[in-house]
Write a structure and sequence with these properties.
Blueprint (H helix, E strand, L loop, with lengths): L15 H4 L7 H15 L4 E3 H6 L4 H9 L3 E5 L2 E4 L6 H11 L5 E2 L1 H7 L11 E4 L9 E4 L8 E4 L2 E4 L1 H8 L5 H12 L6 H10 L6 H8 L7 H14 L6 E6 L2 E7 L4 E6 L1 H4 L1 H17 L3 E6 H6 L1 H18 L8
Parallel strand pairs: 5-6, 11-12
Antiparallel strand pairs: 1-3, 2-3, 4-5, 7-8, 9-10, 10-11
Helix pairs in contact: 6-7, 7-8, 7-9, 9-10
Length: 332
């Protein structure tokens, strides 16, 4: 699906006159219909049967309003008011209402509501706590859905962006997951702290470890791990032994091939995210190049998933440096 950073606004709902145009209504009926319209306006044009009972209507009064076109059935126990539910937002809101208190739009439907996907798939997906099933809705049952995992967006109860990403992870291949996490973190709806907090509350969820790895949370590769793993990588693929953590003109170099004047820097989201880190990295590269060293940046993903390719490329870089220069400058 093609991501869209900001979700589109639903079609605005009108007032009572947009719902009911029968001027011959008795004053009592019109007062009731005003109350119905007021509830529906807060729920994307929908109302539940239980809410109608709460407004004083009985089964006969509800049946009458269905017959004359004041109520339209959307899902079992949920009606659109004054006109059929046409827009995806109206029908998505109705799906959540049909699944009862505590339900929330989730999974792919939540991705679209948050604007990370452009298109609505059907049936709508809703997560519930318990064993409620509603025809025409893809219901997910959860024992871990908690109040902090639910919010309201465009008048619809929905899982938070962080919880949505966790729920979606088992469906997504690595490339798609990375793209969707990146889109979410670059939207107005999610910060890395919020994502990290949600991951901490759901340590055993199937998606937690994969997302944590992407954003460099504890338990994923670290500097100390790099200091052990990169020399082992070099030994395995016949590369020279690097010097790890070498000081050089005010910097600490991740790895240095001294004889060839080549620095290898590990780029991870945790240590290199954001504009300040981007600028610092480029400043560092320019300074070390001015002293005769070139920098090769390797990501954790490339090193883990394509080690042979990375080793072959490093061999070529070192060979060309060795052929074209003498000894590397002294570190200071």
């Amino acid at each position: 699906m093609t991501p869209s950073i900001h979700p589109p606004d639903p079609e605005p709902l009108g007032g009572i006159d947009d719902y009911f145009t029968d001027s011959s209504q008795a004053p009592v009926d019109r007062a009731v219909d005003r109350a119905i319209a007021a509830v529906a306006a807060r729920q994307n044009g929908n109302i539940t049967r239980q809410q109608l009972y709460g407004l004083g209507l009985d089964d006969n009064a509800i049946a009458y309003r269905i017959r004359v076109g004041r109520l339209y059935r959307v899902f079992r126990g949920v009606y659109s008011v004054g006109r059929p539910a046409i827009t995806p937002h109206q029908r998505a809101a109705a799906a959540v209402l049909a699944c009862g208190p505590g339900a929330a739009l989730s999974q792919g439907s939540a991705m679209t509501l948050w604007g990370y996907w452009r298109h609505w798939d059907t049936p709508f997906e809703v997560t519930v706590v318990g064993d409620r099933r509603t025809r025409g809705i893809h219901v997910h049952r959860s024992t871990t859905l908690r109040r902090p995992d639910i919010t309201t967006q465009l008048g619809i109860r929905v899982t938070t962006p962080a919880r949505t990403l966790i729920d979606m992870t088992p469906r997504l291949k690595d490339k798609a997951l990375k793209r969707n996490v990146n889109n979410a973190l670059n939207s107005r709806w999610l910060t890395e702290d919020q994502l990290a907090d949600t991951l901490a509350r759901h340590p055993n969820a199937p998606g937690t470890k994969r997302i944590a790895k992407l954003i460099g949370l504890p338990g994923t590769p670290t500097r100390s791990g790099w200091e052990d793993e990169f020399p082992a990588f070099c030994a395995k693929y016949g590369l020279p032994a690097p010097v790890m953590g070498q000081p050089f003109h005010g910097y600490i170099l991740d790895a240095l091939f001294v004889e060839d004047g080549v620095i290898v820097e590990l780029d991870s989201w945790r240590f290199h995210k954001g504009k300040p880190a981007f600028e610092t990295d480029r400043e560092r590269d320019a300074d070390t190049l001015a002293h005769g060293l070139v920098t090769v940046r390797i990501t954790e993903e490339r090193l883990e998933e394509r080690p042979e390719r990375e080793a072959k490329r490093l061999h070529a870089i070192l060979w060309r440096r060795r052929a074209g220069r003498g000894h590397a400058p002294n570190a200071a």
